[in-house]
Design brief:
By secondary structure, the protein is of the alpha+beta class. The chain has two helices and five strands, in the order ααβββββ. The chain has helices at about 1-20, 25-30, and strands at about 40, 50-55, 60-65, 70-75, 80. The chain has a five-stranded antiparallel beta sheet with strand order 4-3-2-1-5. A hairpin with a 5-residue loop joins strand 2 and strand 3. The termini are far apart.
């Protein structure tokens, strides 16, 4: 089973190394259960932003439509919850 997993994983990792997230964005958007949903994003210990999840950029950043603007959120500490 490990050999089969690696046979699938290695080409994907090589493609990601060469092309970045852009090569996988469409597939991600197809499977994104948060897309077009009202969400709350935790960006820090006490910092929250509410909006509608609008997908991701070609670099994998979260797009969040707030009442004021379309925001692009980057970061390892982003926690996303449906409202």
């Amino acid at each position: 089973m490990l050999v089969a997993l690696l046979a699938e994983l290695i080409p994907v990792l090589q493609q990601f190394e060469q092309e970045g997230f852009r090569a996988f964005r469409d597939e991600w958007l197809t499977a994104d259960v948060f897309r077009n949903q009202q969400v709350r994003v935790q960006t820090g210990a006490e910092a929250y932003i509410n909006g509608i999840a609008a997908g991701v950029t070609e670099t994998g950043a979260l797009l969040l439509q707030t009442e004021q603007e379309l925001r692009t959120l980057h970061g390892g500490e982003v926690s996303l919850r449906r409202v």
